[in-house]
Amino acid sequence: MTVNLGMPALREAADRTSTQGSDKPLVILVYPKVDHEKDYVYHWMPFSLLTIAKALLSEGSVDVILFDGNQADPAAWERLLDEQIERAVCIGVSVMTGGGQIGHALSMVRAAKEHPACPPVVFGGPHVNVEGEQTARHPLVDAVLQGPGQNSMPAFVDSLLGQLRRADVPGLITRLPDGELLRGPTNPPRTGSLGAYPWHLLNVADYIRDDPTVATRTLNHVSSQGCVYQCQFCYELTYQRKYSAMAAEPLLADVCDLQARFGINGVKFYDADWFVNLRRAIGFCEGLIERDLGLRWAASINPNDILKARRAKLPLLEKVAASGCSRLLMGVESGNDRVLADVVKKEVTRTQILDVAGEIAEAGILGSYTFIVGFPGESEVEQEETYSLIEELRGLTPIPETRVHLFAPYPGTPLYDEALKYGFEPPKDFEGWSHFDYYTSLTPWTSQATVDRARDQTRMRLAPTR
């Protein structure tokens, strides 16, 4: 049995669970609220929870509830605890670095711990993947799971049910009574558990957005995990450049199912790089063309994907445009060749970026280009080259979106270690990371003038399509 936890139906869902009298233990999966910057328009479906829920439900031994803090308020969380906590075998919390999510997570866990029947609370997610031991030592945290949760969470639940030794749970770190840490075996970075998500655990209608770069009824989707590139600032490196993805046909089936069920006319893929497998990408595009769904879509792409398609003589952008793709998001990072090569390791030059962006524009696709300023050791002259590249890109038609981010030192990445050498002082403990805000200046070498200029050069299409 599963439960829909859209905010309007929260109490009804909880009542339905109790009246149906399920005797299965319950797993509560939580995605705490994220404090996005003020001009961020959309909150999307929490795929980190959907992937874990799918893996848990496939075993059939537990019920699952998803709680999205971006859709439901603290009062709804309290009601859920009052009505369901006695059934719960554990509470799983997914957190990323920054955005206030860690702070909201700790507030939710404190509320849960006030209940005498509170089960073990286990943390996972991008932040835990790189700061697992520090997270595990926080007094509100009973255990952490590093690596893909769909690999580790079912095993952790099995250990709570007495079906598996705790020491055999992949990715586990937990405190023993003497304060020592118990570690499970390594959790492999690849996973095959993607797609055919349990949509009924969410009120999907709450996540359909009027996206000005895609369509009036746009829904998000994640079809892959990991990335093969080595950008030195990026969290995706924690997956050790391993890549897992749905094949084209199952992905098409997922999209068709979403359209039939919820009347969507757009899909926004939030994969780190949707185009890693070029054959898969072209196969998906050809499937959309053949089915003639009238669907618009958007995804992220690395400039090297387009260069590889050229070398292989694959009609990538031709197929992408013909299939209804309206927007391609590309991390450019810098307009300076030294920064691109030596700092970011982007494996592409400024000239190649301009060439690729021109090809995207010629295909009639909106390019959305992101940049970063304030890298360790980056000079003002090198930053100027980034802004001059932005000006060149704005000469294209359609006029691209541009977003300029401030460099944020993410733990577990090579540039984090470099930032420490330049004087960055990281938070000292897990709770300290709750104040880490990647939209503000975090490094001692980043001036307010740099911050203001980055914001001024950010141009996004934020107005609804209608």
TrEMBL record:
Residues 214-447 form the Radical SAM core domain. One of its GO terms (molecular function) is 4 iron, 4 sulfur cluster binding. One of its GO terms (cellular component) is cytosol. Keywords: Iron, Iron-sulfur, Metal-binding, Methyltransferase, S-adenosyl-L-methionine, Transferase. It comes from Streptacidiphilus fuscans. The keyword Lipid metabolism does not apply. Residues 24-167 form the B12-binding domain. This is B12-binding domain-containing radical SAM protein.
